[in-house]
Design goal:
445 residues, alpha/beta, seven-stranded mixed beta sheet, 9 strands, acyltransferase, Phospholipid/glycerol acyltransferase domain-containing protein
Length: 445
């Protein structure tokens, strides 16, 4: 037993040393990428066994073709397209069958609910040896696959998990000490330089607790100041981006574990935290945001315009606040590889989320820095936000949705309902009545 503890101690000490050196020089040693390549070969072996079992079953079963509304020409109504496709312009008067297209569109939206699907954990096309995904008892398909799953379970829960907890605790303590030290310095270029170096170092070290493997593309577009906007999947999005570049952040005030990081960050730089339910607080945020973005000596400020965490497959409506300021926008697209671990935050308790993350294989993602974008003359803030959102969704290979992400918890806005009603009523007016109304207006003028 003493030999086992001695071996574990030396393994842990070696891991700490590697993480510390990697974070210090800010140059990955390639060990995590080798680990990912081993996992990919293991997943390929498991998928081969699963497909073999499926082929045996398919010989005795007849699969019925799945019917989906996506394959049919069903009119879908959205906030940007309030009119059902079946409503014609030349109708005269109201008939009961005029509502059928709206009923069809409503039923299609209920069945093919894009909003709800965007807030559910991503379903993987292949099994990744985690019983939490594609839970169809794949671990019992074959004896060798069962052995691989059991060994993987023991490694994740009894080797990786304790090690990652220790790394997280040490990294958090180190983060607090560094940010406190930076906060004691007077404002100036030296403080900003030290904050940039220590922030990247600390987050790079803490990222080791999740076995993070992040690949950054188009580094020449990495923001140096101004406003950076990114799609939002999880609370670790900021950590992922901060392992490569220094940011000041804007976000909702949190309690618990996240509050520790927010308090430490506020000691070292000009981060902006607000209470979303307080209208006065939100108005002050816009003012502070504009002042920060226009100051070229401050780090870029990082914003998630969606306002909610989305499941890594879609990008929902961007709030227009950051796009009304008139500054240059630096878009960033983040796409996680859910095969190794799904970072989407859907759990009720943050502790459950952390446990879920730290017992996954790893967190793997790609980050794309996109060319800076500016608001065109005469372009509204909403149109500009949609244009930036479309660029991010296209680069990340995600679906671009126009729906507000807060629809998952809040009822539909009354103004949206009114738009549907006005559009429907407009196409039910008789042409003769329209002419009479127009002539009356002309006489009055």
């Amino acid at each position: 037993m003493e030999l086992v503890w001695s071996v574990l101690w030396w393994v842990y000490a070696l891991v700490f040393l590697i993480l510390f050196l990697s974070a210090t020089v800010h140059h990955p040693l390639g060990l995590r990428k080798h680990y990912i390549s081993i996992l990919l070969r293991l997943f390929a072996f498991g998928q081969e066994r699963v497909e073999r079992k499926r082929s045996l079953r398919s010989r005795n079963e007849i699969d019925e073709p799945d019917s989906s509304f996506e394959d049919q020409d069903i009119p879908l109504i959205s906030s940007e397209h309030p009119r059902a496709l079946g409503i014609k312009d030349d109708i005269k008067g109201f008939k009961l069958d005029h509502v059928l297209e709206y009923i069809s569109a409503g039923m299609a939206v209920v069945i093919e609910d894009d909003v709800t699907k965007s807030f559910e954990p991503e379903e993987l096309p292949a099994w990744n040896l985690l019983s939490r995904t594609n839970n169809r008892a794949y671990e019992f398909v074959s004896f060798r696959l069962t052995i691989c799953w059991v060994v993987g379970f023991l490694i994740r829960y009894f080797l990786f998990f304790p090690l990652r907890i220790v790394i997280l605790i040490l990294g958090t303590v180190l983060f607090w000490i560094c940010m406190l030290a930076v906060g004691l310095l007077p404002n100036g270029s030296a403080k900003r330089w030290l904050n940039e170096k220590l922030l990247v170092f600390c987050f790079d070290f803490i990222a080791g607790s999740l076995s993070l493997v992040a690949t950054f593309h188009n580094e020449e577009y990495a923001p140096k100041n101004g406003i950076a906007v990114a799609n939002h999947t999880s609370p670790i999005d900021s950590m992922v981006l901060a392992t490569h570049n220094c940011y000041d952040m804007v976000g909702q005030k949190q309690d618990g574990f996240l509050k520790i990081f927010m308090t430490a960050l506020s000691r070292a730089s000009t981060h902006i935290w607000f209470e979303r339910s307080d209208a006065k607080d939100r108005s002050l945020v816009v003012k502070r945001l504009k002042e920060h973005a226009c100051n070229s000596v401050l780090p870029p400020i990082l914003i998630y315009p969606e306002g909610v965490c989305v499941n890594n497959t879609t990008v929902v409506q961007f709030k227009k606040g950051a796009f009304e300021i008139g500054c240059v926008i630096h878009p960033i697209a983040i796409r996680f590889d859910a095969r190794f671990g799904d970072p989407f935050w859907w759990q009720d308790k943050f502790f459950h989320y952390v446990l879920y993350m730290m017992t996954s294989w790893a967190i793997v993602c790609n980050v794309w820095y996109l060319p800076p974008m500016t608001r065109n003359p005469g372009e509204s803030a909403i149109a500009f936000a949609n244009r930036v959102k479309a660029k991010i969704a296209h680069q990340g290979g995600m679906i671009d949705l126009s729906w507000d992400g807060f629809l998952k918890t809040n009822p539909v806005k009354e103004e949206w309902k009114k738009r549907q009603q006005e559009e429907f009523a407009k196409h039910l007016q008789v042409k003769d009545e329209l002419k009479i109304t127009e002539s009356v207006k002309e006489k009055e003028e």
